[in-house]
Amino acid sequence: MFQASHWKSCRDFLGALAIASMLMPFSKTRAESGESPAPPRLRAGAAAVDVTPGPGVLLDGTIMQIGPVRGVHDPLFVRCLVLDDGSERVAVAVADATMISREVFDRAKRLAHERTGIPPDRMLFSATHSHSAVRAIGIGEGQADLEYLDRLARGFADAAAGAVERLAPAEIGWGAGAKPQFVHNRRWFLKSSDALATPFGTNSDRVKMNPPRGSDELDKPAGPVDPQVSVLSVRHADGRPLAVLANFGIHYCGGFKSGEVSADYFGVFARRIAELLEAGAGEPPFVGMMTNGTSGDVSNGFDFRKPAPKKAPYEWMQEVGEAVAEEVHRVVRGIEHRRDCSLAMRECEIELGVRRPDDARIAWARQVWAAAEGKPRYSRPEIYAREALHLAEYPPTVAVKLQALRVGGLAVAAIPCEVFAETGLAIKMASPLERTMVIELASGYHGYLPTPRQHALGGYETWPARSSCLEVEAEPKIRRAVMELLSAVAPK
After folding, report:
1. CA distances from residue 157 to 90, 149, 321, 470 in whole angstroms, order as listed
2. What is the DSSP letter of 391?
3. Domain tally for the chain?
4. Quick check: is 445 in a domain?
């Protein structure tokens, strides 16, 4: 059982039901009348809203230096699915963004609540992790950047409102396929330690992220991968496709041109699954949604044992997106859809420590950063010196929001980190539901989530920065909390 001292706020099961009753008067009236609860009759609606950034909006990350938007290859969207079983109403949305801060998500949920009446704790919002999209975590401070953060928050609200307006009788089903050829662990043990230097002047790492492909120095990957493609299929009552929510643990595909905006394979999937399901251009329009699974230590689709294949810009994301869509289409055709699925959702917050730098690291960072002043681009030590100074200003702990949603027999866990595949596999294995998907980068962004063992191995994902700031024991604490939430939403 998760210790109470780790929780900041987490509603217990009965308390959550009481809140739901107050927010859903029709449910309370039925209970007061003494009638037996009616079988859930599902309604669903979906919508997509364009949130493509304009020229000048910064695409830089905490580590990556990409620069501002200079063009658009394909548009970015917020896509939202709203489900209602007569007692619960939930919204699931995903934005084409690299990551989104807790502050932007919270604002998005407040705006969506004002527009729809859906309680914020019944909203599961996440980012895809396309690397050719905006890192909406407050890095850019120009007027265009700040305006885009507001536009993104409003995009979530607009999508949720559009989905609610389209609520109609629906049927739903779930299943899973697999695309193992696209998932490869990117953290590798090497036969020699010559290439394992850190930005901090040490040689303590035992693994390397993204080692040279096809190199004789490769020994073995440092962790597993999850090849599963999870699928939630929603149809209108007459059988027409309404929406598909999918989940797959590939980090992203890339292959974009610097400065050009693209939704990566997530956008390709959304377009291709609509074509395969012959959804057409009717009203209301079909919405395909791909969420990112536990891919914090997964490559962009290539096998490191082989030399990197030559691909034209955008070619690889197109290949992967279409192949995953074809697998999801195969799964959807075999799903038995039903109309009597109930919903349940819970969330909690836990306080986790931040790995702030010690005095020696701060002194090193100040010296390195001062020498870097005025440079147009920074070396890796200079980047991590800057990151150390940022972390020095962090509070000692941060509140991390976790969520669990149940749709019939499908569980959805949501974590605001770049989660390693082994964590996702462990959650799926221990889940009390028959099938579980794990969505990362939801409700905020708190960087990579290595296990304690992976922290001991070192490597890029463990180097202290805004992209990897949580305490070493964060992963087991988060995993235990998620399992508590999954137990709370499981049928009793």
Report:
1. 13, 13, 27, 30
2. H
3. 1
4. yes
Q: What is the pLDDT of residues 291-334, one digit of tens each?
A: 999 999 999 989 999 998 899 999 999 999 999 999 999 999 99
370 assigned to some structural domain: no
Domain that holds residue 135: 4-356+394-489
- With the C-alpha atoms ordered 379, 385, 390, 395, is the resulting torsion angle positive or negative? positive
What's the CA gap between 322 and 272, in Å, rounded? 6
Name the E strands within 277-326. 287-292
| Whole-angstrom distance, CA of residue 121 vs CA of residue 347 | 7
The three-class DSSP label of residue 138 is coil
Asked, for residue 455, whether it belongs to a domain, the answer is: yes
- Per residue in 23-77, pLDDT (tens digit) is 333 333 333 445 555 666 899 999 999 999 999 999 988 888 888 999 999 999 9
3-state secondary structure of 475: helix
b/e code 324-334 from CB counts within 10 Å (16+ = b): bbbbbbebbee
Return the residue matching tokens 């010296």: 367
79 and 287 in contact (C-beta within 8 Å)?
yes
Rounded percentage of the chain residues whose pLDDT exceeds 90: 84
- Rounded CA separation 400/67 (Å): 29
Residue of 214, 210, 220 lying closest to 190 (CA atoms):
220
Q: Quick one: 270 exposed, middle or buried, by C-beta within 10 A (0-12, 13-18, 19+)?
A: buried
In Å, how far from its chain's centre is CA 319?
22
C-alpha pair distances (Å), 102 with each of 106, 263, 402, 445, 484: 6, 21, 12, 6, 22
**Dihedral sign (CA 197, 198, 200, 204):** negative
Output the six-digit token pair for 387: 């990151």
Within a 10 A sphere around the Cβ of 220, how many other Cβ atoms? 10
Q: Is residue 389 part of a domain?
A: no
Q: Using an 8 Å Cβ cutoff, are 421 and 298 in contact?
A: yes
Distance (Å, rounded) from C-alpha 478 to C-alpha 455? 15
**Which residues contact residue 174 at a Cβ distance below 8 angstroms, ignoring those fewer than 6 apart?**
230, 231, 232, 233, 335, 407, 408, 409, 410, 435
Q: Which residues contact 243 (CB under 8 A, 6 or more apart)?
A: 44, 46, 81, 234, 286, 287, 288, 289
